[in-house]
Amino acid sequence: MKSKVLLSVVAAGAMTLGLAACAAPAADGDGADGGLIGVAMPTRSSERWIADGDALVAELEAAGYEVDLQFAEDDIPTQVSQVENMITRGAEALIIAAIDGTTLTSVLQTAADSDIPVIAYDRLIRDSENVSYYATFDNFLVGQQQAWTVLNGLGLTDLEGAPLPDAPAGPFNIELFAGSLDDNTAFFFFNGAMDVLQPLIDDGTLVVQSGQTDIEQVATLRWDGETAQSRMEDILTANYSDGTKVNAVLSPYDGISRGIISALTDAGYAVGVDFPIISGQDAEVDSVKAILAGEQYATIFKDTRELAKVAAGMAAALLEGGTPEINDETTYDNGVKIVPSFLLGPVPVVADNVQSALVDTGYWTAEELGL
Ligand code: BGC
User: Fold this and answer.
1) With 80 as the cut, is the pLDDT of residue 135 above it?
2) Closest CA to 140 of 148, 130, 132
3) Which class in CATH covers the domain with range 9-138+303-346?
4) Residue 335 region, left (φ>0) first, then alpha (ψ -120 to 50), else beta?
5) Which of 39, 89, 278, 363 sits a CA distance of 20 to 30 A from 165?
6) Residues with CB under 6 A from ligand 1
7) CATH code of domain 140-301
């Protein structure tokens, strides 16, 4: 039954991805004038943004554009000046994954004054009317999937949230982590997860021993793994020193999960004995290995190749006089306007479908995952 569920989840994700690949305009080079497109990524410290940058360069160059790709190492002034330089260099379009989604208002006004379209890449740019389009995943669904993977690991539901027969009654101790409060997606992930978890907290199936359930209390600035590690250490010291065990941890991102795993390991938790169920996101190599080793239960795979295709297609359509394909015109209000968006489908990954979701799709090789 479990593998059937997995197959249908993966198939659904693949279908969404397939649809996106067809529906989004291809950056096929027709009519391209070889102009410059600026691509601003937040940091090289996470594998996914490197993969995103590489995939965008490949898509855009194949379409005949020149690309200025910059990483800002999570420093806001650096990202602002990188975007300024792209405009000075004559960029005709900008694709930006913001570090802090609220800090680009002024530089985007400069872009608008020169009629340069701006595509928000995976992270919504807030407080500016000068955001043309948004390419991302269904972020609320990502959060729900993170929660469902946690419940699946506890034996309560399948990976789509349907209750399992003979589910244990609990109660289970769970601790909650969220992403960076300056990243709009962090709210979507956390709200999606709490949409699933809150009813179970309310009925006593899940217990948050620390009492920390507000996003402000559980957020992790810049999605930093060490910050998460020390918060987990503090939680363990304050709430679990009497032998009470934490059974599950909601984590929004693989780098945060690795920090949580370090804190748990240092506190004496052992795989196969009492290791908690931990979620994640991004299918980073080390975390997929941790899933195979039983330290992390799940991650959420977001195919950066597909996202790059969508964003590059949007830029090409805008520069070639077309209209970018969108599939959402209601969800992403950036404080000034609702930004027309294209949402891709995320795919939950547990040990059972690492091969089909990540290796068979060519995202990672078996060698890279140590298979
Ligand atoms: C992305 C996630 C990523 C996180 C940390 C978010 O904006 O949507 O995929 O895990 O940033 O880099």
Assistant:
1) yes
2) 148
3) alpha beta
4) left
5) 278
6) 46, 48, 122-123, 179, 183, 185, 223, 253, 281-282, 302
7) 3.40.50.2300
